[in-house]
Design goal:
By secondary structure, the chain is α/β, with parallel strands linked by helices. It contains eight helices and seven strands; from the N terminus they run βαβαααβαβαββαβα. The strands form two sheets. Strands 2-3-1-4-7 form a five-stranded parallel sheet, sandwiched between helices. Bound molecules: BIS(adenosine)-5'-pentaphosphate and zinc ion. Zinc ion binds next to helix 1. One of its GO terms (biological process) is ADP biosynthetic process. Its EC number is 2.7.4.3.
């Protein structure tokens, strides 16, 4: 299976993508997680990326394309396919991905956009908790960890993302509509696009996603 999840901040990409990874034995490539890893390691890229992420902007296309290229070439877990979460976010990124896949003799199966009204995203974003090392995601009220503020699997502390505040969310949403909206149109013209209602519960969203992918592994 080779698929892309498109959706605004808080739509549920990071909640659903690991389920696709586990169910279809593909790799989950989340560019936001990769950038946050760089931030944590305080690399030059991480330092530059943190400023951009906290301002709700986008890291340059070249950097992001190379990150994905490196994963597709070297991550053995991607041999069987992939789910992309957070990439492509601009039309040039989508065009570069097409070029990469063409070179590899691979084709996308589908592109799914998680559709949800902006007004529903504030509570999702401001209540989110993450386990930085694994990328596991919780929500203070919608899907709380078993024990207060610690990861269910490792027992390590959960944190809030520095871009998860109302002010940065507004900017991230504006960026999404301006830059990533056209990516959905790009895949519509290619006949690959499907939209699903992301305002429902995680388990209903998952059922609907799964039914799109069944038979495509
Ligand atoms: P990224 O990490 O990709 O952030 P994002 O796109 O803003 O998306 P989020 O991670 O906020 O949302 P999500 O859809 O994963 O939601 P989640 O499942 O966690 O990117 C961060 C930044 O990195 C960007 O702003 C940009 O600066 C940079 N960047 C990344 N990729 C880039 C690229 N390709 N090019 C350039 N720059 C790039 O869910 C959110 C919360 O809601 C959770 O608490 C969850 O538990 C809860 N929840 C999920 N589903 C439901 C549901 N159905 N009902 C109730 N609650 C739910
Ligand atoms: Zn995410």
């Amino acid at each position: 299976l080779r698929t892309i999840l498109i959706g605004p901040p808080g739509a549920g990409k990071g909640t659903q993508a690991p389920k696709i990874r586990d169910d279809f034995c593909v790799c989950h490539l989340a560019t936001g997680d990769m950038l946050r890893e760089q931030v944590q390691q305080k690399t030059a890229l991480g330092v530059a990326a943190k400023k951009i992420m906290d301002a709700g902007g986008l890291v340059s296309d070249d950097i992001m394309v190379n990150m994905i290229k490196d994963q597709l070439e070297n991550n053995k877990a991607c041999k069987n396919g992939f789910v992309l979460d957070g990439f492509p976010r601009t039309v040039p990124q989508a065009q570069k991905l097409d070029g990469m896949l063409e070179q590899r003799g691979e084709k996308l199966d589908s592109v799914v956009q998680l559709l949800i009204d902006d007004s529903l995203l504030i509570s999702r974003i401001t209540g989110r908790l993450i386990h930085p090392a694994s990328g596991r995601t919780y929500h203070k009220t919608f899907s709380p960890p078993k024990k207060n503020m610690v990861d269910d699997v490792t027992g390590e502390p959960l944190i809030q993302r520095s871009d998860d505040n109302v002010e940065t969310l507004r900017k991230r949403l504006a960026t999404y509509h301006a830059q990533t909206g056209p990516v959905a149109d790009y895949y519509k013209t290619k006949g690959l696009w499907q939209g699903i209602d992301a305002a429902q519960s995680p388990s209903i969203v998952w059922d609907n996603l799964r039914s799109i992918f069944v038979g495509k592994d």
